[in-house]
Amino acid sequence: MPAFLLLLAVFWSALSTAAPTTVVELEIDGPIGVATADYLSSGIEHAEDVGAELIIITMDTPGGLMKPMREIVKDILASTVPVAAYVAPAGARADSAGTYILLACHIAAMTPTSHLGAATPVPLVNSPATKEGDDETPAPAMERKIMNDAVSYIRSLADRHGRNADWAESAVTEAATLTAREALEQNVIEFIAENREELLAQVDGYEVEIAGASRAISTSDVEIEVFKADWRIRLLTVISNPEIVLLLGLIGLYGLMYEGWNPGAIVPGVVGAICLLLAAYALQVLPVNYAGLALIIVGIALMVAEAYAPSFGALGLGGIAAFVFGAIIMFDSGVPGFGISYAFVIGLGLGFAVLLIWLLGYLLKLRRRGAITGKGSIVGGTAVAMEDFEGDGKVWLEGEAWHARSRGAVAKNEQLIVTRLDGLTLEVKSVASPEATTSE
Question: By the 8 A CB rule, do 92 and 120 touch?
Answer without folding.
Answer: no
